[in-house]
Every structure is written in structure tokens, then in C-alpha cells.
Amino acid sequence: MEIMKVLGRMVCTQRVAGLGHMNLRILENNKGKKLVAVDPVGAREGNWVFTSSGSAARFACPNPEVQTDLTIGGIIDYWEND
Amino acid sequence: MEIMKVLGRMVCTQRVAGLGHMNLRILENNKGKKLVAVDPVGAREGNWVFTSSGSAARFACPNPEVQTDLTIGGIIDYWEND
Amino acid sequence: MEIMKVLGRMVCTQRVAGLGHMNLRILENNKGKKLVAVDPVGAREGNWVFTSSGSAARFACPNPEVQTDLTIGGIIDYWEND
Amino acid sequence: MEIMKVLGRMVCTQRVAGLGHMNLRILENNKGKKLVAVDPVGAREGNWVFTSSGSAARFACPNPEVQTDLTIGGIIDYWEND
Amino acid sequence: MEIMKVLGRMVCTQRVAGLGHMNLRILENNKGKKLVAVDPVGAREGNWVFTSSGSAARFACPNPEVQTDLTIGGIIDYWEND
Q1: According to the CATH classification, is domain E2-13+20-70 in 2.40.50.220?
Q2: Please, where are the H alpha helices in D24-69?
Q3: Which CATH superfamily is domain A2-75 in?
Q4: Which of A5, B61, C50, E27 could form a disulfide with C1 if both were Cys (CB 3.0 to 4.6 A apart)?
Q5: Domain boundaries in chain A?
Q6: CA distance A60 to C70
Q7: In chain E, which residues have their Cβ closer than 8 Å to the Cβ of D71?
Q8: For residue range E6-48, what is the model confidence (pLDDT) as tens digits?
Q9: Coil, strand or helix: which one is C53?
């Protein structure tokens, strides 16, 4: 799993049915790259989280056939970035 | 999911049966790399979209055994590139 | 899917049973890296092709349990490299 | 599988149900990047381990539908880093 | 599939049950990075091999639920490195 920071929400009204109404977050990884993740844990802006990618990202959702390749797995209690 | 920009269509008459007649788009990621994605949402040139990769890309298609590893998941309402 | 150029054939007599007698091609990606792909479409040296990776690579073969992680998905009609 | 070094434990009380109470470790790869992995072998700080990613990471756990994309596969008996 | 060189064996007595007694090899990719792979073909030090990653790596083993994400697929008859 990778460690990322939550930047904010993502607004995307036109999307595939496979994503349903799941919350999407914009995250930033340690190289400053912005990514989009499904959020089942309720992370907020500024939180440090860890994310699962690949097929593991789908198993974190109620429906494992959902179209996500990145899902927030948890909010880190304490993290000091390098 | 990654954030990419739609550059245009891709013409490819000679392809595997597993892709059927699905629309293919040429996308550009944040490093300027060009990639090919299946488009089930009808994105147009210049749109900012987010894409799912891996097995999630297949679940966005009617047939989850289709041969795609990159599928457009939605068109972003508003995006300002860095 | 990624865009690559076909460099030639690959000779490999000693290989796992899971690959059977499928044709193997040496491809070059946009960074000059050489990769090996299964070719079900009959691409020739100099062709520009797009490739599927991961589990999608397996679904392009008659047997989806074949041991490939990169398969040519189609030959691009026209491509002008940067 | 990749070779990584164990830096320590990771505290994360708020996480998805799919991870249960599995131990999480912070690892460092050869580029100095910190990653989070599930640890079923009991690795300790300073150990050199190898990790499996993707769907293989899930098959190392009792429940193959667990939400992990990185799992420690073993502790290396002897390793001298470059 | 990627092209790599076999550096030697890997000794790892403490490992997950999912890997059984399969032979592990240390490989080096074209960037000089060392990786660990399962070897079902009997490659020797100095051999050039190609490897399959992801779920394809598992299908090369007798048990497709084994915990490997990198498996040697074949020994290349002739290879001249750049």
C-alpha cells in the first residue's frame, strides 16, 4: 500500500455506472502526482492515508466488480513526511 | 485512477476479437506519455478524464473478459492542470 | 494500452508449458526499453502496435490461464512518433 | 518479488474492514520510498524481506479477498545491500 | 514480459506457506534493479530469461493461488544486451 495525502473532493457527474455514487478523492503521492481514489473510510482534506491498488482496491468496496483501481484503506494516526 | 487529457481517436482496423468495436481514444498523462484507452462514456478531444487500469478497466465494459487494461471512468467537471 | 514498435521475433526454445507455441515478439516502448509480448494478430517488424498488460493480456489468448502479461492487441493504421 | 527493508510498525486504527487486525509494516524499497505491507511472517525492524504485490499479495492471507496489494513473503537469510 | 539476467539463488528459510519449496532466483533488470522470481524452468547464473509478472506469474505454477508476482517464463536462446 502507498502513503498519500488527501487534497480534496473530486466532482465528476458524468461517469461509468460501475462507480455508482461512491465518493472520489484527489490524493497526492510522494512525487507530487495527483491521483483519484474511492474513499470508503471518510478521509478529509489534509489527512494522511494509505491506499490499495489493483484488484485489492475492488475488494474494499461492497461490490468487488466495481471499476476502481485505487481505494483508501485507512487513515494513518500519525505521519511525518520526509 | 489517473487524470489524463483526451488527444483524439485512434484508428486500428486490425485488432484482436476481444476488443470488439469499442471506441479507442488516445490519451496523454501528466508526463506527456500517450496511451490508448477504451471509452464507454463518450469523451471528446480536450476533455479531462480519469482512467482505471488493470482488472478494474475490464469491469467497466459489458464483458469483463474484454482485452483492455485502461478504460475511461468519467469526465471531470473542472480541472486546472499544474 | 501502450503504443510500441515491433523490433523482431524472439527465439526461446526452453519455456514454460503455459506459453505453448504462441509467437513471441520483441517490442520497444517509448523509452527505448525492450519487452517481450505474445502476438495473436500477426504483427511484423516495424509495425506500430498497442499492447494490453496484466490480466487483460491473458484474455486475448484462447486460454485465459496462459502465462502472458503483455499481448499485442492491434496494429495501428497510422502513427507518427514524437 | 521485491527486496525491501523493514522500518517499523504502522499505527492505523481507522481502516477498512477488509484488512481486519492484520499487522501492517512500513517498508523501504531500494529507492528510499516508504510503503505499507501486511506481515504474516513476523518480520522485525531492520530485517530484509521480499514482498509480493498485486493479486499474489492477497493469496498470502487466509482470506484471498482481503484488501492488500503488498504482503511480506519471507525474511531473507542474508542480504548485503548495494 | 521483461528480459532479465539471473544473478544467483536466494536463500530464505522463513517464508509464507504459499510459496512452498519453489526455487527462488535473484534477477537483475535492465536498470540494474535486483528482483526475486520463482523459477520453474531451471535457469542458471548468467542466463538471460524473460519473466511474467502479475496474475500471469501465478498461472505458471502448478497451484495458481501461489504467492508469486514474478515467474521466469523461459530462457532466451540468444541475447545481446545493449
Answers
A1: yes
A2: 55-59
A3: EutN/Ccml (2.40.50.220)
A4: C50
A5: 2-75
A6: 27
A7: 16, 67
A8: 999 888 878 887 777 788 999 999 888 999 999 988 999 999 9
A9: strand
